[in-house]
Amino acid sequence: MISESIYELLGQALDKKYDTYYLDQAPDDADCPYIQMYSIYDNPSQFKDCENGYFNLDVHVWHYRMDKRKEVANIMDDILRIAKQLKIENHSVMCLCDGRRILVDNSTSTTYLHGVITLKFKYI
Known about the structure:
- The protein has 124 residues and is an alpha+beta fold.
- The protein is built from 2 helices and 5 strands.
- A hairpin with a 6-residue loop joins strand 4 and strand 5.
């Protein structure tokens, strides 16, 4: 599936610059900032001679310092830039930002800045 290939390529590219975790939780002692790649919402269309469709991917950025909002925003910009450069052989891929937000997460004993960027990939 194209969505899985793009997910893997994006993860490999992000891993070169940031600590990146996948559907699993980061360890309690993970250095911040770090990235978690979450859900894929896939909507493929299969035709006789080609595969096309789109999918959304949520990517999360975590930081334990409340004064690092700009750093979290810059990392989300970098994620989008990297995602727009991904190439899949024999397919055209386009990536757009479908929304982003930075929240304060105090659901644990440590308060985090929690950035979420939703990437929308379209492919033919």
